[in-house]
Amino acid sequence: MSSFFPTASSAGGSDHGHRTLAEVGEFGLIDEITADLPAGPDVVIGPGDDGAVLAVDSPLVCSVDVLIQDVHFKPQWSSATDVGRKSVAVNVADIEAMGGTATAIVVGFAAPADTEERWALDFARGLRAECDTAGVSLVGGDVTRSAQIAISVTVLGTLDGRAPVRRDGARPGQVVALCGRVGWAAAGLAVLGRGFRSPRAAVQAQQVPEVPYGQGKVAALAGATSMIDISDGLLADLGHVAERSGVAIDLRSDAFEVAEPLQAVAAATGSDPLKLILTGGEDHALAATFAADRVPAGWTVIGAVHEGESAVTVDGASWEGEAGWNHYG
Amino acid sequence: MSSFFPTASSAGGSDHGHRTLAEVGEFGLIDEITADLPAGPDVVIGPGDDGAVLAVDSPLVCSVDVLIQDVHFKPQWSSATDVGRKSVAVNVADIEAMGGTATAIVVGFAAPADTEERWALDFARGLRAECDTAGVSLVGGDVTRSAQIAISVTVLGTLDGRAPVRRDGARPGQVVALCGRVGWAAAGLAVLGRGFRSPRAAVQAQQVPEVPYGQGKVAALAGATSMIDISDGLLADLGHVAERSGVAIDLRSDAFEVAEPLQAVAAATGSDPLKLILTGGEDHALAATFAADRVPAGWTVIGAVHEGESAVTVDGASWEGEAGWNHYG
Asked: Taking CB atoms and an 8 Å cutoff, what residues of chain A touch B60?
């Protein structure tokens, strides 16, 4: 445990929200965040000691993601509550992508000393809300001072005795299926970057991804042979699956329904909505490969696995990004 | 997984150390860090998938610590290798303080895009070296861009079926014992802050704490009734034990041997060496309470637990910090 916020020299009155973290102090903030913290039955010791103690199944799945102010979120575009929710969601998605179920998180939170206490408390409120949605317990953390807000979330999860679903199991003849949204967060980023706040659904997708909680386990139970969380974009992330599995993946452009917000953003920005779908990151959908007759309900087949050089193509051709389709590829 | 370092547009030649992280790219850096990574037999899946998978015992101990550039370390005072080692050590200390044995860590690493690759690789070398010393496997991580270097380490550990040792079990009649160094890191900080590099032992203690690995388990097996990691200073951290346990703790000033480097620093800075010992943080010694006849070898009795108001006194009096002893307290 570290203590690098100066301790509050005075109570600072009752006007919570306008105190800064320097005035509240590290321990004051921790007390506020952890008060009445809900905990699942697997939490033996929650926050407040040197470490948390948890009842766990073996093997355990574990992942960490770091979110940095002005890199992963902008305070002027996302509320503190949004950032808290997103911090949990993007991490739980990694456990889902292994076919697991997230159970607990620990959070590192670093912020400038002049950050308003309200921001930190709203952030914690967002953490709690998304933990509640995802069925995860917040069991520990560390709070410290920094020049820009930096958040790390480590998430632990269970496989309930199943084998983990890796990136290297895709085999020729199988299909590629998708669960969740793609392109929405990128569409939101595009409009926020131009100073707009609509379409609201796209902006909200950028602020807090809608992770298909529970679908990683569904895919694992259905026999998914590989799976990945779409954080960097469908082509980029399926590229990891293709490379690890030593296979070619071909996507069908007509498999994607172009949702209304994507159409609107593409029209407003003069771009191809398919570009948002294929290259937009941060939605944290799940993509997996299955035997053709094993695709579970709720998943959409978007392509197929072939023998060949490890690469991802669309309608049999390589995707040229900004330049549009390479019909000669 | 996030990807916020721009991908290298060119290979940049073979002069590794002078490339920046922007030139190397996120995936290049991850490849460098994870190449030939040693892993314990409990690592089912190491870095490279959405999550790591580990064989674990239940219950599991878990803790996170964040280290921020210019708050927890200064690049001009600590080498990247030192920072890597310290990042592991301070976290493993938290598992020790629960009576556990650390088994695995995941690391979040954020750094400016113009950071030299050499710094990141030396940091990773330090992580690996300290993991090796502590018997811990590095199983996963996240790498991203930020304005200042920010490191989060989450450590997992086992209790081997023992009950965790908490902060709230100290009882009147028991003794307080210490294992490890106190005051050394603060002495090192004092000389570094004045532009000096000696005494070398104190400076090294500031750069990389010497955590008494394995002694948390020793204390637990000996029947420790409470335990804490001394990160903020002996008085401050034992204050948490006193408060949680609802007891008074009195330390004996003659119980502390004043090591030569502390004498030297105190003399050079005109301060009381006992102040370094009682209030200096960052050495990550372990303090625990035991029945008087259960103190294990390697631990030094430094005080006793009494009934009374939750507070820590020294020789029966309150410690007044800068003002020296309050003989009238």
From this structure: 53-56, 60, 156
CB contact under 8 A, B98 and A152: no
Query: Which of A1-15, A196-210, B66-80, B175-189 has the weakest average pLDDT?
Result: A1-15
CB contact under 8 A, A71 and B144: yes
* Nearest chain A residue to B53, by CA: A61
Q: Which domains does chain A have, with CATH numbers?
A: 16-158 (3.30.1330.10), 175-323 (3.90.650.10)
pLDDT at B16: 56
Mutation site, A26, A61, A62, interface B, largest B CB count within 10 A: A62
User: Please, where are the H alpha helices in A42-150?
Assistant: 80-97, 117-134
Reported ipTM: the value is 0.89
Task: Encode pLDDT of A99-110 as tens digits.
Answer: 999 999 999 999
Residue-level length of chain A: 329
pLDDT tens per residue, range B11-35 = 344 455 589 998 888 878 888 888 8
From residue B143, alpha-carbon distances to A111, B34, B92, B120, B301 in Å are 19, 12, 21, 10, 43
Show the tokens assigned to B117: 């690759």
Whole-number Å distance between alpha carbons of B217 and B271: 35
Helices (H) and strands (E) in chain A, counts: 10, 12
What distance in Å separates the CA atoms of residue B177 and residue A276, rounded to the nearest whole number? 61
User: Among A51, A56, A155, whose Cβ lies nearest the Cβ of B63?
Assistant: A51
Query: Which of A157, A228, A231 is opposite residue B2, by nearest beta carbon?
Result: A231
Contact yes or no for A104 and B62 at CB 8 A = yes
Taking an 8 Å cut-off on Cβ atoms, the answer to whether A64 and B164 are in contact is: no
Q: Which chain A positions have a beta carbon within 8 Å of B238's beta carbon?
A: none
Q: Two tokens at A129? A: 């809300």
Q: Which residues of B are annotated as a binding site for ATP?
A: 141-142, 167, 231
Res A125 pLDDT > 50: yes
Is residue B3 predicted with pLDDT exceeding 60?
no
The whole-angstrom separation of Cα B19 and Cα B179 is 43
Helix (H) or strand (E) holding A228: strand A226-230
Interchain pair A56, B59: CB under 8 A: yes
pLDDT over 70, % of chain B:
92
Give me the residue from B58, B61, B147 closest to A148, CB to CB. Answer: B147
Contact call for B164 and A59, based on CB within 8 A: no
Mean pLDDT of B169-192: 97
Q: Strand order in A60-68's β-sheet?
A: A137-145, A101-111, A150-158, A60-68, B52-54, B43-45
Q: Quick one: pLDDT at residue A25?
A: 83
Give the rounded percent of residues in chain A with a pLDDT score beyond 90. 83
